[in-house]
What does this fold into?
Amino acid sequence: MTDSTERTTTERTTTERTIAVVHAGLGQPSSTRLLADRLAGATVRELEALGHDVTVEVIELRDHGHAIIDAMLTGFPTGDLADAIETITRADAVIAVTPLFTTTYSGLFKSFVDILDKEALTGMPVLLGATGGTPRHSLALEYSLRPLFTYLRADVVTTSVFAATDDWAQAAGNGHGDGGGSLPQRIERAGRSLAALVFARGEHAKPADPFSSTPSFLDMLGGD
Amino acid sequence: MQFGIFSVSDVTTDPTTGHTPDDTERVRAMLTIAKHADEAGLDVFATGEHHNPPFVASSPTTMLGYLAGVTKNITLSTATTLITTNDPVRIAEEYAMLQVISDGRMDLMMGRGNTGPVYPWFGQDIRQGIPLAIENYALVRRLWTEDVVDWEGKFRTPLQGFTATPRPLDGVPPFVWHGSIRSPEIAEQAAYYGDGFLHNNIFWPISHTKQMIAFYRQRFEHYGHGRADQAIVGLGGQAFIRKNSQAAWDEFRPYFDNAPVYGHGPSMEDFTRDTPLTVGSPQQVIDRYGSFIDDVGYYQRQLFLIDHAGLPLKTVLEQIDLLASDVVPELRKIAETKRPADVPANPPTHTERVAAAQAKGKAGATHVGDGGDEYTGKRAEEVLS
It folds into this structure.
């Protein structure tokens, strides 16, 4: 529809990329925030090596706790939360990190995902991370977080990173002996994978504007 | 600009007294509210349509038909008529009947409805909401404008030689609005036909409303019905008024905090900031609603939701009085100063539509039987014999 509203696009150079980091850590300091920052750092280093200028936008879900529940009850997000959702939807990649509570992502994390538009993450490169008390919970990333983002049709990086409390006290080159590598090694590998996805993807096709993609009435009247 | 009220017909316990009206009491309260709005000088009363508790308004034309007989000036309308799950043939018949009974003092607003199970209860598929709205309304229009209709579609039994009666008053169908909150397809539909578009923004920030209205206006112009700023636009709204602002806040807060939909969620402070809900003095309501023209352009109808969340009838009637005496006269003045000279002040009345149709030679037959149908050449007797 050529005569429809022309969407406004933010002017930016072709090498600029934005990474949205969303995490559901609650503590101050928070090991979830720490993991999120490390994952972002690894990704940025790699993207910069590939010639990109990278901006990182961090969304701390704790700051939006009340607003997330309000949005769930009223059906629309407002204020800072609406801005945060806009940031994620328009980003070139998302790093999503949650603490594991009672075997899975935290309720705050899931509630945030629940209020996103179902198209918001379609095709979005996503790197997943989680924190927990012991390594016994590490597969929660694979059986609960990954299906959630696959359902939203995100492009989820194969390597996801789980950090148990003990991981923070390990030497960089010293893995568990379980083949997984140390936390810094896993973070580097994950960052490289996300950067490669963003690089390969090129210019991010921004989310469809519902007004410019509305079919003309005659198409709706005559078509399926 | 027209100013009126609309009701969603909810039966809600008054949180301050614990009183829950029964269905009969609530239906009668709606009749009293509509009559009172007419006497107070408001322009529109619109009823919702629902088919599940806690709502009682299942049969809008029965209610509006009665109101047509007991009110004098107020325009009777709907908010909304379910274009997806009602049989379009019944919509064409019932609203033509209401048009005749009210002597043209009515219009109606099509909407898809937001209660999932209503679709299967009435034999439809919610995933087909937009195609249903489009096909059904196209049929309603044919039934109003063509005397004898042969029709086949995807969702309803075909019709051969069908005539909807009574024929529209003076051969001119009722004015139709389309209401939608999120679907540009419905704004597109309204624009295509040159019908009105109402955005019921009571749960939405004005920034979103602005986008939807701008899209409708642009498409209205595209389809050749006039300039974008001449399109017929309506907005929803919500207010609780007392002479003293603090008294309004204190009185309304328990209703807000326990209201269906937003109760137990955002604070009244947040909700009044983010949505058109305005709680306060008449001047505060005037300031807020007088500003919406600056966001969406001059519009022709402003409806207020004032009877939900368990508010007692007495309070609702007081709200109507405050609206009519202290708010609407000022808003009318503000609206009129902001209206460009060649933009319609109000939605078209029946009389205006008849004059326009006659000028174009497009007024239809007022009964079918004497002559043949202008489209098919068939006569009603031939069709039936």
Remarks:
- The helical segments of chain A are 31-49, 65-74, 79-90, 107-115, 140-151, 183-201, 217-222.
- Residues 16-222 of chain A form a domain with the Rossmann fold fold (CATH 3.40.50.360).
- Residues 123 and 182 of chain A are 30 Å apart (CA to CA).
